[in-house]
Amino acid sequence: MDIDDTSFKILQNLKDGRESFQKIADNLNLSEGTVRNRVNSLIESGVLEIRGQVDLEALPGYSMVQIGIKLSTMDLVGKGEEISNLPSVLNVLVVTGRFDLMATVLLSDSYSLADFYLKEMNLISDILGVETFVVYKEFNTKIPCSALQEIK
How far apart are CA 113 and CA 105, in angstroms? Predict the structure, then answer.
């Protein structure tokens, strides 16, 4: 889906996902129906997802790591997608440099880094090596509330 100027302005006005369609319409001199239809189209096309997010530092017992992943295959996108589907993985990036992929992983007091490597990453083939970067402080990091339920 191409995002035109109007859709882009609507996205900018959504802010935290709770702005009313009427208020956005008033700000942009559009009808409420136009805003509603545009937002629904953006959601249906996968461009927009409105969901609850939480500040990781506000949650006791949760932590995050970044993992650099070196692969033995050139199918970086396929492997990135496969790893991104693991329950503890928040996101995966295809990168340049000494790693092929970088993954952000959510851990908890009841689900450790060892659990992640042994129960999830162990299932992925074509991994030559990994390097784990423990995150001890993050900024502007919000995680989807649904991720909390996945790694109990």
Answer: 9
